[in-house]
Design goal:
The protein is α/β, with parallel strands linked by helices. It is built from 18 helices and 17 strands. The strands form four sheets. The protein has a seven-stranded parallel beta sheet with strand order 10-13-14-9-8-15-16, sandwiched between helices. Strands 5-4-3-6-7 form a five-stranded parallel beta sheet, sandwiched between helices. β4, α6 and β5 form a beta-alpha-beta unit.
């Protein structure tokens, strides 16, 4: 395996060649990579499933299509080379420049789709990318990167514009993170890797944990809400961090919602079964979900927990009364398991949603099923999350591009609450340095102010303000 110095030297050479490409050539390379990824969407999905044993391969195909087709459609007409905007009134011209070598961390839960996504947005912005994956997904990630790289080279991309670790390991990745020639890290993965990225000294765009609450209000279409929640939480066996984690309802609505979940093949666990599932789903010593539960089917979870569930059960539901480490299923569990809370009224229900996000999902996502504009506004103003989804399945809604116009993305940042620098769905605009040409435009109001008044401390701020505004 080449050293970090060799990897960065190759990437910086590619970066210099990338800067010579115009928009047309860049777009041709992006299209070639997109088409190659789409052509291999099924094979790569099957590889990911066979290697990781997580999720559902058919759903991984869908994720590969989101990462290629939807991402490509979103970025294909964007200007990322040279002049990208010009305002004749202000005299400001914005010019896009690549930022330089990018390190893309790839999680085990979305290995091929995240690789496709990060390569596409990097190539579109003329930035070389180095891929480092979770060890458990190294083969499918290497194959994905190789397919994209061959397509990029054939379309005229620089040599070494896409690199990847064939045998990824934590030590080598951390060494590369701290290399002074690296421009930025796109950190998607475990909390440990994201934390290491932020501690490296290299600018990092990271993600936060998700503990997504879902509030079902009195004005909601309950069968529709339940169907949406189940379709989302069972997508790839709930392995996406944007998937729903807890349903919250008012007491007077609870029986209807419970009945609808049962009608749609949800199984409510008994107290003993909750305890059994909790033991296998949550590692109390680490304070995190157990890796062995991630992306597993209901049937497999039932086997591990030694419980019997009805044939055809789609999702396991645990009715809880608190949020804490002593109540493990109130935490983020990336599997088809939902917590369920019954609260006295709207205010206490929203407080419960806030408690859930504070426990492990600040800044990420929350969902409300309601047709009451005032309730929706209150919910949106109260919860500290980046994405408020209304009457929308959380997994697909947060990823963007299907149920809304959010940028399709496999890097969902969570703002200051999640210790991230932005609340955005990450895309091309985060991988550009924007240079501004500023032509002379005189601010007449500034130059018409009596400068002696500014220097006179006896002149009040209000007087200077009046002086400034009278010239407008």
């Amino acid at each position: 395996m080449p050293s970090s110095d060799e990897i960065i030297t190759r990437a910086r050479h590619a970066a210099r060649e990338f800067k010579l490409l115009d928009q047309k050539k860049t777009d041709a390379i992006v299209r070639a990579v997109y088409l190659a990824a789409m052509a291999n969407r099924v094979r790569l999905a099957k590889m990911a499933f066979e290697e990781t044993q997580l999720g559902i391969w058919e759903h991984k195909v869908i994720k590969n299509v989101i990462a290629s087709q939807l991402v490509y459609e979103h970025i294909k007409n964007q200007k990322t080379v040279g002049v990208i905007s010009e305002d004749s009134y202000s005299g400001i011209i914005e010019m896009a420049q690549p930022i330089g070598p990018i390190l893309g961390l790839i999680p085990v839960i979305n290995p091929t789709s995240t690789t496709i996504f990060k390569i596409l947005i990097s190539i579109k912005t003329r930035n070389p990318i180095i891929i480092s994956s979770a060890t458990a997904a190294k083969q499918c990630v290497a194959e994905t990167a190789s397919i994209c790289y061959r397509a990029a080279l054939e379309a005229g991309a620089p040599e070494h514009s896409i690199q990847w670790f064939k045998k990824p390991n934590l030590l080598a990745t951390k060494e590369l993170m701290s290399h002074r020639g690296l421009a930025i890290i796109l950190a998607t993965g475990t909390g440990e890797m994201v934390k290491a990225s932020y501690s490296s000294g290299t600018p990092t765009i990271g993600v936060g944990a998700g503990n997504v609450p879902v509030y079902i209000g009195a004005s909601a279409d309950i069968p529709f809400a339940v169907k949406s929640i189940i379709s989302s939480k069972t997508f790839d066996n709930g392995s996406i961090c944007a998937s729903e984690q807890a349903v919250v309802v008012k007491k007077r609505l609870a029986d209807k919602v419970i009945a609808e979940f049962e009608k749609q093949k949800g199984y409510f666990l008994s107290k003993d079964e909750i305890a059994r599932v909790s033991r296998i789903a949550y590692d109390k010593e680490r304070g995190l979900m157990s890796p062995m539960i991630v992306g597993q089917s209901v049937q497999r979870i039932a086997e591990m927990a030694e419980i019997n569930v009805p044939e055809g059960t789609k999702i396991l539901i645990a009715q809880l009364d608190k949020v804490s480490r002593d109540c493990p299923l109130s935490a983020e569990i990336l599997a088809p398991i939902l917590a369920f809370y019954v609260e006295e009224d709207f205010e206490s229900a929203i407080e419960r949603c806030m408690e859930l996000t504070r426990f492990g999902g600040i800044g990420h996502t929350a969902v409300i099923y309601s047709n009451n504009p005032e309730r929706i506004e209150y919910f949106s103003n109260t919860l500290d999350v980046a994405r408020i989804l209304v009457n929308t399945p959380s997994t697909q809604g947060a990823l963007g591009g299907m149920y809304n116009s959010l940028p399709p993305s496999f890097t969902l940042s969570c703002g200051s609450g999640g210790k991230n620098s932005t609340t955005d769905n990450i895309s091309t605009r985060h991988l550009l340095n924007i240079h501004r040409i500023c032509r002379r435009r005189i601010n007449e109001r500034w130059f018409n102010i009596d400068q002696e008044k500014i220097l006179d401390e006896s002149v009040s701020a209000e007087m200077i303000e009046r002086e400034f505004n009278k010239n407008s």
